[in-house]
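Record pair follows.
FIRST:
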Amino acid sequence: MNSPACPLCSNPETTRYHADAAREFLHCTVCDLVFAHPDFRLSREAEFQRYQFHQNDLEDSGYRKFLHKMSAPMLERIAPHSAGLDFGSGPGPLLKLMFEEQGHSMSLYDPFYAPEQSVLDDSYDFITSTEVVEHLHKAQKELDRLWACLKPHGYLGIMTSLRLPDLDFSSWHYIMDETHVVFFAPKTMSWLANRWGASLEIIGDSVIILQKQNDILPKAGIRIPALK
C-alpha cells in the first residue's frame, strides 16, 4: 500500500504508524500528525449515518457541561458582544445558545446540518470547533480557511482529544470511531501555531486556543520545518 502525503502539512514522506483489523494509520515526522490511510475512509453517506447516532440534545445538562470546557476559556478571552462562528455545529447547536446567553452572536456552519457556505465569507472575532477537526479529510485546506475567517487578534478554539506521548494508540477509544481520520498531538498544534504566526494555549488534554497575531496566511504549499 502506498504512503500518501500528510493531509495537514503536505509532507510526501509519511511512515506506517499502526494497523488494526479496520484501518492503517500513518505518521508525519514534519508536523507529528497521525492519520488514517485515505483508502479506509467512509463514504459521505456512511459518515452521515454515523453522525445520526450522536446525542446533541439542547436540554442535556451533561452535554452543556462537556461544551463548557470550550466555552469557559473562550468567554474569558473574547470582548463583550463578539461575533463568532461555530464550525461543525452538528444537529444540536447548544454552543451557539451558550454564547448568546452571554451576549455574543454566533453563526453556524456544518457540512451536513448547516451547509450555508456564505458564512465562511464573513470575518469573526472568534471561532469554535468542538470534536470536529479529527474528522477533516483535507485538514490543511479546512483549517487554513477557518484561520482566514478570523479577524486580527481573533481566537480559534479547538476541542479534540490530543495524542499524548504516553498514550497507548492501539487501545485508544478515539481511533475506534471510523469517522475520526486525523489525530493531533501537542507538537502538531505547535506546528500549526508556527505556520500561522499564532499564540498557542493547550488546556488539559483536549482544548486548544490559538490567537491571531497578524493577518498573514501562508500560501498553499509552504513548508514549515519539522518540530524537534
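SECOND:
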Amino acid sequence: MRTPIVAANWKMYKTAREAEAFCREFLPQRSRARGVELVLLPPFTALEAVARALEGSEVALGAQNLFWEEEGAYTGEISPRMLGAAGCSYVVIGHSERRRLFGETDEHVHRKVAAALGHALLPIVCVGETLEEREAGRTEEVVVRQVKAAFHGLAADEVARCVVAYEPVWAIGTGRNATGEDANQICGLIRRTLAGLYGEGAASAVRLQYGGSVKPENAAEFARQPEIDGALVGGASLEPGKFIAIAEAFVP
C-alpha cells in the first residue's frame, strides 16, 4: 500500500521568520494526519530555518527547484548538493510556472530529475496540460509526452522512488479544479504509461498527487480516488490550519 503524500508548495511566499512562525503553529497539529507523509517546500531563503524547525518531527523538507550541475558558474542557481546540505529530502521539478514563466523544457526537466536522484533527493515531477491543450483534446498526448521525457533512460528502481504530480495548468491558482474523476483518469494514464515503460512493480510504487486549487473543501473528492495518493498544495498550504485539514482528508 502506498503511503499518501501531501506537500506544501509555498512558491515565492514567506520569509524565514514567517516560515518559522508557520512551523510553530503547524507542528502541534501534525498528529491529525497520521499515516500521511507531509512535506514543506519553502523558498530557498527559508530552507535552513524550516530545517531547524522540523528537526525531530515527522515532516520532510523539500525545495521548489534545482539546477542539474553540482557546482559551477551558474549565477542564481541552486545545486542538488546544496539542497542536500540544507536538509532537503524532496525537490519539485517541472512545475508549470517554471515551464511557462522561465522556459523550462522537457529536456531540462529530465536532466533535473536525473540530478536529483543522483544526489539522493526524491523528485516531485509535475506534469499537466494548458487550457488550450485541454480544449484541443490533447490532454493525454501532453501528459504522456511529459512523463516519458522526464524519466527517459532511468532505471525502474529509480522511477519507483519518484512522485508525480498531475497539475492541470488551467487549475493552478485560478480557483478552478479538475473533478476527482477527471484527475483520477489522468493519474491512471500516468501509471499505465509508467507500467508500459518500467513494469508494473515500479508503476505501482510511484505515488501520484493531484495539484491545482486544492483546498479543504475539495480535498476529500481527490482523496477517495484510487489512483490519487496525495496532493501538491499551493495557496491553501500557506495557512497551517488549511494545510493540515487537506492532509487529514488523505488519512488512510
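COMMENT: The two ends are 10 Å apart (CA to CA).
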